[in-house]
Amino acid sequence: MVDSKEREIGALNMVMLGLAVLAVGVAAWNVISDGFRAGTDDLFLVLVCLMLALLFALPTLMWAQANGKLTNPFADEAIAEGAADTGTHEAHGGSDRQNTIIWVSLLALTGFEVLLAYIQVPITLMLIVLMGASIIKAALIVAYFMHLKFERLSLILTIVPTLVVLLCLFAIFFPDSFRLHDMRPQEPVHQVEHEG
Amino acid sequence: MAEAHVESLAVNDWSGGVHPYRVGHRKLGMWLFIMSDSLTFGALLIVYSYARASSVSWPTPFAFSPSILFSSVMTLVLLSSSLTMVFAVSAAKQGKLGSARKWLLATMVLGLTFVVLHLMEWRHLMVDEGLQPFELPKEWTEPGKWPGASPLFGSTFFGITGLHMFHVLTGVCYLGVVMARIKKMKEDVEVSGLYWHFVDLVWMFVFPLIYLLSVDYHHVLGK
After folding, report:
1. Mutation test of the interface with chain A: which of B82, B202, B211, choosing the one with the most A Cβ atoms within 10 A?
2. Where are the alpha helices (DSSP H) in B13-151?
3. Got the DSSP string for B119-179?
4. Cα–chain-centroid distance for residue A141?
5. Predicted confidence (pLDDT) per residue in A84-131, tens digit
6. What is the dihedral sign for C-alpha B22, B23, B28, B34?
7. Distance CA B156, CA B138 (A)
8. Which of A8, A32, A99, B35 is 20 to 30 A from residue A91's alpha carbon, by CA?
9. Tens of pLDDT, residues B7-63
10. Contacts of B218 in chain A (CB under 8 A)
């Protein structure tokens, strides 16, 4: 009974790992064959494939970690969490000092963003840096202020990948805006005013 | 044997058991709400980016003073309110209800400050500049400014910042209820904290996308 269950888990892990490898393969094939000629379309395809690969690989990685085949970089928190596993609402979270440090970091990142807005760099570069800083800020808020870092891994893996995938799916439409821009007349159209 | 089995179910992730996420139903409900609300704001911000990228011309009207100055101070206020909220949650967990109440009040005051500053910024744009939700000021479309600029600027700006402001205002009311009934709603301090931090998180994307990417370089530092 136990053997058949272990075989079943092993087979499922292999399937998941195979799908992850397949997704990475599609991303690699896209990069090699197309070389980002289609611009953002290719970029999004590669990103989505890599994200799918991560999602497929996660259960296997978790299984490997649970069976001691991988070390947990957050082992201290995991142990503390396990030790506090006595009820449904444990008191957990960072100290006041840690939260204050996070707050200062968030302010510093905001200051950097405002400063960047006044350094005239290409808008694409500015967008990437600003969004990068915003994602770091969002991650700090979610992890420390919202205590997600101290929750069970199952909750984290239910919330974060779902949101990331859905937002990326929204963003798949975005490259279409460049095509729409290119199809518009480049000279501003003077509006005819109908008065009287 | 059976107890050990139940124990392993409770410890292993994805194993189900009685408490698969080990959080209360209110907290889980708030997380689910936050996920759905994230998609609302995510969709709006992507629509904004889409409209901007597909337009031939898009206004970049925000001068350092008052727009960028105000929005930066608003960011500072909102981030500070998150810190006071963290202190409120911490105090409530330690059973210091009086202290939790004070921190909640501080959070509400900072939230209201954010709303007031935001309304002042809106007033400046609507009254002084003449920006309307579906119409740009005539001066903005003149040569030398942003001729042919999309009127979607106003609708996306007021739509996104307005929805965010509504969330802040709702949060202030929510915190007020939690503060008034803190003895009965001790657990809700943490749940309301999740909501408040989420509102803060959304602003971390609204601020750079709406304001910082629309800085008017002609008015840099009053030049």
Report:
1. B82
2. 25-54, 69-93, 97-123
3. HHHHHIIIIII--BTTB--GGGGSTTS-TT--THHHHHHHHHHHHHHHHHHHHHHHHHHHH
4. 15
5. 443 334 445 678 889 999 999 999 999 999 999 888 788 888 888 999
6. negative
7. 18
8. B35
9. 554 455 555 566 778 888 899 999 999 999 999 999 999 999 999 999 988 999 998
10. none
